């Protein structure tokens, strides 16, 4: 991308109230906008401290801006989910990917091997896990996926394919299905149909589930991708600049572009087929009580709320409210904010033990 267009892009974005958080350190968090923005940032703030050297990068909208990421995979099953029109959202996805590419490019000049996690804003919550946990899962997933010298990127998976016409590329292909099976068994000792008890499959239209006998958590989701910046670069360049579908059909869907890149580069990228780093909740929550959802809030040893992945009985590093999972993630986020608010107030009052928050 030429530098001038990057500048134009950035200033256009700033005018629209979008901003790029390069790394979510405490000092970078400004709580000066709407409640919802504050909520999202506060939801992160609690745990980003624990991610160590790994940068978590997002491009976030302000609540006053009607363009909101979760509309992307929106199912009709959740009345609150926005259904994106044709023009504006692509503008947003394009700027999102363009800003991320710029950040990757800049970071690469300093440290090509710097590890980053690029995530969707707004509909993603950090559940609380540390750097060691993230790196350990990342390495195990790569290893189980074949782990060749080029294998450096892990993208999130999900139960349903969006756009739907891409499904067979992944579902009906032995390369991907064997890899999925290896990740399931080697990373978490899961059976290949682990998703079945957790999928009410409320969305029948936008990104529907496969029938039970074929259903699996196997499709690429662009809401999360992790790896060294030098390896993220060609993927983001492709998504931002080069498109994907050889026939240019529906080529303005960034997730589809990422899927094409994956199809062209099976040796470089794999999926978190077990939801060990990130659980995409589309088709996994809507239509059931929250108590039956695959995630829940629990308290850690220090009395802080974290999210537990009930399927794996582990911390859920990231939970993604894509598609019809948005409601569950909204409610979980609000609850964490309130709980943090409460424990912070207790810390300030010195009620959480000797020394208060510094020792916590
Ligand atoms: C990457 O950075 C270099 C050097 O700063 C610049 O020349 C180039 O245009 C940038 N590329 C992109 C895609 O941003
Ligand atoms: C893996 O899971 C199976 C049950 O599905 C269990 O019998 C086996 O002991 C587990 N293996 C390990 C290493 O935990
Ligand atoms: C399966 O997918 C891989 C990776 O995209 C591809 O190289 C291969 O040709 C596909 N196999 C079939 C039978 O389509
Ligand atoms: C989730 O929260 C956002 C931001 O507050 C809101 O715009 C959206 O309608 C909510 N969605 C659901 C399904 O509750
Ligand atoms: C946090 O707590 C303070 C009082 O301690 C309250 O005024 C504020 O509204 C709370 N914020 C949220 C998001 O619950």
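^ Assign residues to that structure.
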């Amino acid at each position: 991308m030429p530098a001038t267009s990057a500048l134009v892009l950035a200033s256009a974005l700033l005018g629209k109230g979008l901003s790029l958080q390069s790394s979510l350190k405490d000092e970078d968090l400004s709580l000066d906008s709407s409640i919802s923005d504050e909520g999202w940032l506060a939801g992160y703030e609690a745990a980003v401290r624990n991610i160590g050297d790994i940068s978590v990068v997002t491009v976030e909208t302000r609540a006053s801006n009607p363009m909101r990421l979760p509309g992307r995979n929106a199912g009709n099953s959740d009345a609150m989910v926005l259904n994106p029109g044709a023009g504006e959202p692509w503008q947003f996805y394009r700027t999102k990917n363009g800003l991320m590419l710029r950040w990757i490019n800049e970071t690469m000049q300093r440290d090509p091997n710097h590890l980053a996690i690029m995530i969707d804003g707004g509909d993603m919550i950090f559940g609380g896990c540390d750097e060691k946990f993230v790196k350990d899962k990342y390495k195990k997933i790569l290893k189980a996926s074949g782990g060749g010298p080029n294998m450096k990127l892990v993208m999130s998976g999900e139960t349903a394919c969006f756009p739907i016409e891409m499904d067979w590329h992944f579902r009906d292909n032995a390369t991907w299905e064997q890899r999925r099976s290896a990740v399931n068994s080697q990373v978490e000792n899961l059976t290949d149909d682990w998703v079945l008890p957790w999928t009410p499959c409320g969305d029948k239209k936008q990104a529907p589930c496969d029938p039970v006998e074929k259903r699996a958590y196997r499709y690429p989701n662009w809401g999360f991708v992790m790896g060294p910046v030098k390896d993220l670069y060609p993927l983001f360049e492709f998504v931002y600049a080069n498109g994907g579908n050889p026939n240019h059909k529906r080529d303005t869907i960034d997730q589809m572009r990422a899927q094409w890149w994956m199809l062209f580069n099976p040796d470089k990228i794999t999926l978190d087929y077990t939801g060990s780093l990130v659980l995409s909740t589309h088709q996994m929550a809507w239509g059931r009580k929250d108590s039956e959802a695959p995630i829940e809030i629990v308290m850690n040893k220090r009395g802080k709320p974290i999210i537990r992945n009930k399927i794996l009985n582990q911390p859920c590093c990231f939970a993604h409210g894509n598609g019809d999972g948005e409601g569950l993630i909204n409610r979980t986020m609000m609850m964490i904010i309130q709980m943090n608010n409460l424990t912070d107030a207790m810390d300030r009052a010195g009620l959480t033990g000797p020394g208060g928050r510094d020792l916590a």
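Residues 189 surround 2-acetamido-2-deoxy-beta-D-glucopyranose (ligand 2) (CB under 6 Å).
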